Structures are given as C-alpha cells and as structure tokens.
Amino acid sequence: MASHRRPKQPSRTRVTVLTTAAAAAVALSANAANAAPSEKLSKDEVKAKVDKLYEQAEQATEKYNGAKEKQQKLQKEISTIQDNVARGQEELNKLRDGLGSLATAQYRSGGIDASVQLFLSSNPDDYLDKASTLDQLSSQQVDALKKIQDKQRELAQERAEATEKLKDLSATRTELGNKKKEVQNKLAEAQKLLNSLTAKEKAQLAEEQQRANRSSNERVDLGDAPPASGFAQAAFSAAQTRLGSPYVYGATGPSSFDCSGLTSWAYAQAGVSIPRTSEAQAQIGTRIYNQSDLKIGDLVFFFNDIHHVGLYAGNGRILHAPRTGTVVRYESMSTIGGPFMFGVRV
User: Fold this and answer.
1) Residue 308 annotated as catalytic
2) Does residue 307 carry a catalytic annotation?
3) How far is residue 300's CA from residue 339's CA, in Å, rounded to a whole number?
4) N or C: which end of the chain has fewer CB within 10 A?
5) Dihedral of the alpha carbons of 69, 70, 75, 80, in degrees to the nearest 10
6) In degrees rounded to 5, what are phi and psi of residue 65?
7) pLDDT in tens, 233-258
8) Is 259 a catalytic residue?
C-alpha cells in the first residue's frame, strides 16, 4: 500500500497497489501532481452548490425573521405588563396609605381598634377570615380591604406572567442568535466556494447574474391578468417601484429586501398590514391552488416548507426578491427552483 506521509499528498488520493515499490512510487508521484486539478469544481458545479447554499440561507432567514418578530412582540408585551405593575403598585400604595391615615386618626383619638390593626396586617386573606368575627368593621372598611386584596392578587398574577414572558424572550433571543449564525455560515460557505473560482470564472458568473437581472426586468410580458383587488394592485405597483433593489436577508425595505420583507412592505404601502414571514403570510386570506386562478397582487408560495414568497405578476411570472446576490425582479414561476404550493388572496 502506498504511503500517505508526504506533506503535499492530498488525503483523498488513492494509489493502486502495484507489484513493485518503484512502480508504486511513480504512481504516487503522478497522483500528487494531478490531485488538485481533479478536485477543483467547475464553474457550473460551484454555481449549483452556491445556489443550494443560498436556498438554505433563505430558509434560515425566514426562521430568523420569525424569531425576530416574536422577540419584538414579547418585548412590547413585557413592557406593557411592567407598566401595568408599576401603576398597580402605585394604586396599592395609595390604598395602604388610606388605611394608614385611618390608623393615625384612631391613634390620636385613643388607640387603634382591632379592625384597623388587621387592616394593616401583611396578609389581607388572613385579615378577612378573622375580621368576619369583628362587629366593629364597617362596609366601607371591608370594601377598602377587598380592594387591597384584589390589587395584590392582580399584581402577583402580572408579575408571574412577566416572569414567564422573560423566560420565553431569553429562549427566543437564543434562537435568533442561532438562526443568524446559520445564515451567516451558509453565506460564508457560499463565498468560500466563489473564491475558489478564477478571476475569469467569477467575472463570467457575475455577468450571467447581471444578465438575468436585466432580462427579467426588461421587456417582460405580464399578460392582461386582472388585479385581485384595488389594494392588491396598489401593493403590486409599490413593489414594481423596487425593481433592481438588492436582496439582503432580514431586510424590509425601502432600499433592500428579503422575499417576505418585499411582500409585507408592498402591502403596507397599500395600507394593509400582513405578517412579516412567509410562513405567517401563508396563513391569511383565501388559498388558491390552481395557478390559472391567480390574479395580480396575490401572494404566491414555493417549496414544501413555504420559505419563499412573491407577488403574482401575470402570465405565469412573479415579482420577488429571489436570494442573496440577486435583485428584486420578475421571474417565471417555473424557474424558482422549488414547486409552487399555492397562492393567497389577501
């Protein structure tokens, strides 16, 4: 068996076992000289791998967007609860101050009776149990203590809710960081592959991409499909003004977009609020499974996990933000790279 201890010998090289040591040495030397060229990927192979990585990055991007949206929602909810707790504590303090004033007045008039002593106890539940036997209690006093009891219970419940949401927020932040790292790793891996190309090959790929961007936006026959509605037409018209804007993961405009960032931005320009992510956008409106029933401005979804969305443009084409390295453009639904799943009429 040939030795692999030579520093320059690639680990994947396999040397045929020959009958003499001299023949083996010759074969090993020849393989060492040819290993690097045989392992180098062609431009088309690199492009195929890079496109796959970009698709995986887009999948992770939609998960990242979902985690980011959840984080923002939780932060707002926690802020609201904390504000409510602060106001509730002020109300509780005022109620207690009122009881304190009553105790002061009674002390000045000769001492604090049993009912007020119980008012000021740290356990209102215990107070109500004991106070039922005291004839001195007035209905006004009972009402005052019940308010304190209710307010304490309300504050305890809100504090518990805030604690749970803070735990959820922490988990969501971790998920957000993981998804962001996953996107960045996929993009870095794709860039490493691109860097393996020669300058000439890189220029050829760049020209191919620029040509695809230009051809998809120039002289596009969109047919005469009607708009799904007035605001669908308005959303589509808004998206048309973004043609040529670069794809950037996590971007929602107005100068760059990812796929669901473009659709949510476009509908926002029409005065309609739709969810941020493709997965969430797929849950609204009326689903349309027959491509021939699609109208201008309908949302169209691709891939089994619904990680890509665009706007129907007519004549079997969509207007969308495809992936890293591309721009907002028209494209045939047959060239998206994944199956058409369904449309949604907002």
Assistant:
1) yes
2) no
3) 11
4) N
5) 110
6) -60, -40
7) 999 999 999 999 999 999 999 999 99
8) yes
